[in-house]
Each structure stands twice: as structure tokens, then as C-alpha cells.
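Quick illustration, no need to memorize.
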Amino acid sequence: MGSSITVVGMGADGWDSISPAGQAQVLQADVLLGGRRHLALLPDTPAVREPWPSPLLAGLDELLALHAGRSVVVVASGDPMVSGIGSTLVRRLGPDAVRVIPSVSSVALARARMGWAADDCETVTLVGRHVGALRRYLTRDRRLVVLTSDAAGPAEVARLLVDAGFEDARVTVFENLGHPADETRRDDRATDLVDASAADLNLLCVECAGAEGLSTAPGLPDDCFDHDGQLSKRPIRVAAVCALSPKPGQLLWDVGAGAGSVGIEWARTDPRCRTLALEQNSARADVIERNAARLGVPTAVRVVRGAAPDALAGLDTPDAIFVGGGGSRPGVLETCWDALRPGGRLVAHAVTLETEAMLVEWWKRHGGELTRLAIEHAAAIGTFTGWQALRPVVQWSVVKGEK
């Protein structure tokens, strides 16, 4: 855009919380951008002052283009790279176009108030995100610093904690954190905060209690998923996710997703992992969305409604692909293979002889590993106990470019 953009962090106590370097940038700016509250806390300068458009992202490019070629300073809360406008501008314009001068973040202030070391707790941002994303982090005795979007945040988080079985979680609500006169603190149980009101500027510190929670390692119990029978059973699912080898920030195509269990388990391994779950059955697609929300990955798993291979056209390039259904349909494996980046992983399962024969041919052509998974569980036989076999599954796993 040709502008020099500096993002300056400010605490709740206003101008005095800005570093000397940040103050100098504000005083020299041609244009000052920020929220109305932030702009009102600045001293008078000759600069043009522009509050953020609403919605911000829709009007951001136009606002920046309006001031192209001028010295632009953006004023933001605390550390602008912690769920802030700094991160948005860097993604939009690139790191070389944006200079960031942070102040003390609200997360750092909250940890200081609580006496929590940085490596003893985890930060979860719900700013502009689905509150259900918090579910992925809920395990007994875990400490969380939770960033919220607005005044409704504390009550929403409390209701989710109660619904997830963590009604005894200890929750501290900080309002106007860092303000010398208006900062407040409330310590309570989650169950006592379900109707809480709060200031727009709030942050929560949560100590989980009341339930065990779920592991983020692959292998959730089958009853964690709603399904109509189209579900990769736990041991088969573990084999699939481990063969897919998820890494932070990577994208999975889950083709013929059924209940979405493999794609959901993939997304739960790391908050940056994403899944595109392809499912042509409308009722099952709805189930995938419900399962993803209940298991803490409501936005990390996106359902693509349609049938392979046609519905795969135009999707983002995957790092890994799981073909759990429809592998014998003409063009499915070919489309998946062509879409997969070099070094990407493809895992396909077969329960029918027809699909198995196809996987054998692909294995001969491209290499990889061909494995037959036969699982048996102990089950009652009258008054005795015996082994009950699950339907065998043939798994083909391969890294594109390796043979």
C-alpha cells in the first residue's frame, strides 16, 4: 500500500503505558487508526484520526488504501500480536510492512495477578472465535488464560464449562485489567458465573476441576461421536491418524468422512491443524459439524458437502489425505493423488474386496505400506467370554514421492 505502518501497544491506563518509542511514533504520525476508546486516550496531535470500520475486516483494505503513502500509526491494546490487530496486519501486508511496538499484554498481567508461571498455563483466545474451541483444552487441573471478545464472554465460558462437566472449575474474571482505578477481580466457581455480567474488557483465568476431560492423542472412545454406524472404530482410527502423521498447521482432506472421526482427531492434535471433511450425505454432514463442536474443533473442521471426486475441485492443497469411504469410485484416488503435494501422506482404508484390490494395485505402482488390520474384542458368549472380531480393514499408507 506504500504506507509506513507502526502498531503501538497501549495498556488500560492509557498514554503513560505506551513506551517512549511508541509515544514518539504517535506524535509524528500523519494518520492514527484504532478503536474509539484508544484514540480518545491519546494527546492532541495534527494527525487524522480514523476509528476502525465495522465490520473491521470487510473495510480494512479500503481504509488502508485511503491513506496510502502516509505515515500510519495503529493504536491497540497491550501486545498487538496477542489476538490483536498487529497479527491481522502482518497477515494482510507481510512482516516487512508492519512495525510493532508492544506494551505489556493482558495475558502477562493476568499471570502476574494469579502468580502463574508462563509454562504452567496455556493461553486460549476466543476473540472472534467459536466458544466451543475451548473444549479442546479442558482437562483436570489445567490452567488456562482465556481471552474473550466482549461482555458476554465470561457467562458463555462458564456455561460451556458446566456443560462439559467442569462446573467446579475455579474461574477468576478480570475486568479492565491494568487500569489504575477501574480494574476489578471476581473469583468464583464456573457454576456461579453462568449469568455473570462483565465489562467489555475482560479476561478469565480458569483452573479446571470437576471432570477428567479428553486426551488430544488419537483414540477417543467411540461413544464420543454421534454416528449412524459409519464410524472408524477406535483402534482402526488410531492406526489411520498415526499413519497420517499430523504436524502443526497442516491440512487434511477427510474424504468420505462419515461421522468425521478421523478428521476431528487430526484437528485435535494441535490447535493449528485443519480438516476439510468431504461428505455427500446431508444428515452425516450435520453430524460431523455437531461432533466437531462438541469435541473442541468447531472451526478447525470444515464440512464440504458433496461427492468425490467432483467436490474436491478447488479445495486448498492438502498435506495429507484420508480416504475412508468411496475409494473404489472412479477418479477418487486419482484426484486425491494429483492434489496431494510432494511429501504429503495418503492413507486409504478398504473393507470390501473391490476396494482392497484397487489399493493393492496402487501399492504396486506407488509403494508405501499395505497392512491388514484385524481386531478382536472380548465379549460375552452366553455365560462365558470369547473373542468377537471386527470386520478386517486393509490400510494403504504412502508418502508421495517416496517408494
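The CA atoms of residues 46 and 86 lie 24 Å apart.
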